[in-house]
Design a protein that fits this description.
2 copies of one chain form a homodimer.
Chain A: E1 8-13, E2 19-20, E3 35-39, H1 41-47, H2 50-54, E4 85-87, H3 89-95, E5 99-104, H4 114-127, E6 132-136, H5 140-152, E7 155-161, H6 166-174, E8 178-182, H7 186-198, E9 203-204, H8 213-227, E10 235-239, H9 244-259, E11 269-275, H10 280-287, H11 314-323, E12 327-331, H12 333-347, H13 353-367, E13 376-381, E14 397-399, E15 405-409
Parallel strand pairs in A: 5-13, 6-7, 6-9, 7-8, 10-11, 10-13, 11-12
Antiparallel strand pairs in A: 1-2, 1-3, 4-5, 14-15
Helix pairs in contact in A: 4-5, 4-8, 5-6, 8-9, 12-13
């Protein structure tokens, strides 16, 4: 048997398990649920192993057997992936966590984890012959998909809330995307995109409405396992908006268990971290239901997780949390800002507010004892704080040209 | 002979060659010129080779024999380095360059190449017992040094022009640096820092006033050579402010030649790219002198290269350019913006304006025939465009909450 680049076999409905053909463009299953990619893991186990992967290029395509793109020549990335896993000794001491680590997605193209979903999602869309795509975005996803769309020669139409970080407007626009602002939240943008898609000229790449974005996000879980020497930490904390990242990490670890590359009897407890001002997953977790209630008029400084109705992803997010004995917790914006200051002062790292939420949540869970001091804890920082000038303003003393204080601050 | 972590032997004055002790903090030589680190390259050649380096962690410390830090336990980085070298096929076709590549420093901590100088400079300062440092900055260097200073527990005082990118203020301030704004240019900030340093409480880490920042920048050259399979391209274009990066790349390639890791008879032509509004190096290159004339009231949208009097670095920059049969060229802000649009639309990459200057310069040098169509050309993108919201503003259509056009643009 000759080695293949991808061992993708089918797409299956997340509710019924019904199989769909991955060789043609697919959105949702017949029952309206998300489709997930399935691989011939027995064949993967024969074809490759961790030692082989260790010698490959240092990007997310090193896991190509577990990704959906069929043709190696169809990949035209930016060297994305294999972001650093950084020890946080000083912050860990302050929080009472002896083994605290930071998966830093700010190193990716466009400065956020959204590049993973776009790298794989756009490459696969191009391979399937799709030429025009559309999506709602809280800003960073639009920027990432605009970047890869330009790279692959695909046309992107995106709508983002007017309150999304301003820099996202420039990123998408410079890359040639057709980008509009909407006077509302991402749920409103989603409805507007759905209307556009109905006209039949765009393929819908909204969160979990096509099966390949989550495959890109999955590589976060693959990398964490490889970077820890093919084992898992005790706890992973993840800031949750649409939930694709957490779903992807969970899917990655299940696939690695089935491959036998990580122990089968051990899964990290997955923690979904949400903002007090937008906490639909936490509410559902606390009430024990499987489906979330959509919220409205939600608000948080961590704009990426201002997703009031993450309906498609919620069942999988809740399953990831519950099946791993994890938890869903909310963090106030005040605690997020305090956590941002703490990690910046202790370690010199400036995460995005969403990433800082995981710092705050880890501290709170340590204080309640839910996390033990010797637990190995991985914080997922989804992006660069330096894209959030809008919310990270400071006031600094102004000197005149000779260097003398003016008494003024700017 | 047991292997050492670093093969640093001495610091030598760039003008006289006089040797200084690297085991204690050093600023300039007695004649006021920059000190450069020297290594026992014969011993390095015995101790390590490219095959060994290939198996090391994917960061700039893989070259530790050629870096100044003595103790491996003194390194507490963020996994920095080994940034991607990306092919630019579509942009290359448009510019008539068949082998165009992009060294993308936006993947580094704080999103710019300044992290290299800070990673090595701060680690070495900490190892030498230095506790308080001071520097002028055009913004990104201050952000990077603030980040590593927090990580290593060093106190940083920095002064940056009030027109530096606003996000740099937040980055430095959140990391706990003592940061002030000055109503002037980096040359004014430099004078104010010199006054502060005279008081004797701060070690001066201004550009080329200490010998280790350039060692960090040197790793750009080491990485380009390794990523090309231990050979050099035909041309490297570099946006030049203080000039440390170009000096570092040149120094790296000379050391690799002496090691025999790259061919001795071939050096890339090094191109110093400056802005029309701030071109002291280009003026000196064109008039054939060795020293630059300081300028005043310079201006460019590429703020990082708004360095009106790069006196310390100029002789080394001019030597790097002239000895490699390179050239120094200026680019207008209009051409820089056009180049930014071109690379974003063609390839989906959003470089900083300084990085975009190299795109414009490559196109111009191709048109004059100075670069041939089959020359292998590396553009140095020094940082992420998404830190430059101030100059990359766009206007986008605003939809109301239902998705209908309002006729307004924001």
């Amino acid at each position: 048997m000759s080695a293949r680049f991808s061992y993708l076999t089918s797409l299956t409905g997340s509710r019924t398990g019904e199989a769909y053909d991955p060789a043609v463009p697919q959105n949702l299953g017949a029952d309206g649920s998300t489709l997930f990619a399935r691989y011939d893991l027995d064949a993967v186990r024969e074809a490759v192993n961790p030692d082989v992967i260790a010698g490959r290029p240092h990007d997310l395509w090193r896991y190509h057997e577990l990704l959906p793109v069929q043709d190696p020549d169809a990949v035209h990335g930016f060297g994305e992936g294999m972001t650093p896993l950084i020890d946080l000794p000083k912050l860990g001491r302050h929080l009472g966590l002896n083994r605290l680590k930071f998966k830093d997605e700010s190193a990716l193209p466009t400065g956020t984890f959204k590049a993973r979903g776009a790298a794989v999602g756009v490459a696969r869309a191009a391979e399937l012959g799709i030429r025009r795509i559309a999506m709602p975005t809280n800003g960073n996803a639009g920027a990432a998909w605009a970047s890869y769309s330009a790279r692959y020669g695909i046309e992107l139409t995106a709508i983002q809330p007017v309150d999304a970080p301003r820099i996202n407007r420039s990123e998408s626009s410079f890359a040639g995307a057709d980008i509009s602002l909407i006077d509302g939240l991402i749920s409103d943008a989603g409805r507007a995109i759905a209307q556009l898609v109905e006209k039949g000229e765009h393929f819908d790449v909204s969160t979990l409405k096509e099966p390949y974005r989550v495959e890109g996000k999955k590589t976060m879980g693959l990398e964490i396992a490889e970077q820890l020497g093919w084992r898992v930490p005790d706890v992973i904390l993840y800031p949750t908006g649409g939930g694709v990242g957490l779903i992807g990490i969970h899917k990655a670890l299940l696939e690695l268990q089935e491959l036998g590359w990580i122990p089968k009897d051990r899964m990290p407890r997955l923690v979904s971290v949400q903002a007090e001002g937008c906490d639909p997953i936490v509410r559902a977790f606390e009430t024990g239901t499987e489906n979330v209630e959509p919220l409205s008029d939600t608000s948080t400084i961590a704009f990426g997780v201002n997703v009031p109705s993450p309906m498609l992803g919620a069942p999988s997010v809740l399953n990831a949390v519950r099946s791993t004995h994890g938890i869903a917790v909310r963090v106030s914006d005040e605690d997020t800002m305090a956590a941002l200051h703490a990690i910046a002062e202790d370690e010199g790292l400036l995460p995005c507010p969403e990433g800082a939420m995981t710092v705050a949540a880890a501290g709170a869970l340590r204080r309640t004892g839910w996390i033990a001091e010797d637990d190995e804890v991985v914080l997922l920082n989804t992006g660069a704080g330096n894209k959030y000038g809008d919310v990270l303003g400071v006031s600094l003393p102004l000197l005149d040209r000779s260097g003398a204080p003016t008494g003024e601050s700017l």
